[in-house]
Amino acid sequence: MRQIYPEETALADADLAARYAYPELPGKSAHWVRANMVASLDGAASLNGRSRGLSSDWDRQVFAMLRAIADVILVGAGTARTERYGPVRPESEGLRWAWLRKGRTPSPPIAVVTRALDLNIDSPLITGAPGHARTLIITTESAPAGRRAAAARTADVIVAGDTSVDIAAAIAGLAARGLGRILAEGGPHLLSQIADAGQLDELCLTISPLLAGPGPDRIVRGIPMSGAEPRPFRPAHVLIDEGYLFCRYVRR
């Protein structure tokens, strides 16, 4: 792994972590929302229905490192199902980066966004989460009260919005719990919602040297963003390994 922008240099693990360090948060309820996505050369966000098909060994290392430095991982319910999410387990995905958790819990919790709470509340993602990182479920007032109560037995439930999830309120709710360094892992619907709400501070985009062909979705999907103007971002760095580009963009 080496950096090619803004200057060319080889990177050790500590250098890589420093490139992705979160900025200092100014207050107890402050937050910084980083999204991590992968796309093919022709813009596909998945291959055969899953993002892993576009990934590489180093992409998975960056994935684990970003999880290690985050306070919480934010994901849509559809992505959690498709990608078969479970609790973060450092022993299987991130022992290389365990030093980044020094002084904190061994792993961050996962927060699942689900408007109608239509997910399996008995899944390992919820029932198998460790006590230090209970899964959070972000849902709405209109979600069935019985399912909310059942979910609350093994997860922490955040209500944000009436009939649809208010992303800004959800992010504020995470920050109020001391989870201000937020890593959004998708999917495309959630990323679109975060961007549309003006909550996206940073995008980490891996560009895979593959052509996926027509069909797969882009990294954003759903209703058009409400703002008339594009959202400008500036490049912070570009890294390269075996044809994969690791781009970090920060909101201007």
Written account of the structure:
This protein has 252 residues and is α/β, with parallel strands linked by helices. It has a single domain (30-251), classed as Dihydrofolate Reductase, subunit A. It is 24% helix and 24% strand. The protein has eight helices and eleven strands. It has helices at 13-19, 57-69, 77-82, 90-93, 124-127, 145-151, 167-176, 188-196; strands spanning 2-5, 9-10, 32-40, 72-76, 110-113, 136-139, 156-159, 181-184, 202-208, 233-241, 244-251. An eleven-stranded mixed sheet has the order 2-1-10-11-9-3-8-4-5-6-7, with helices on both faces. It is globular. The two termini are 27 Å apart. The model has no long low-confidence stretch (mean pLDDT 93).
Mean pLDDT: 93
Oligomer: single chain
* CATH topology call: Dihydrofolate Reductase, subunit A
Query: What is the count of structural domains?
Result: 1
Low-confidence stretches: none
The 3D shape can be described as globular
Helix content: 10-25%
**What radius of gyration results from the CA coordinates?**
18 Å
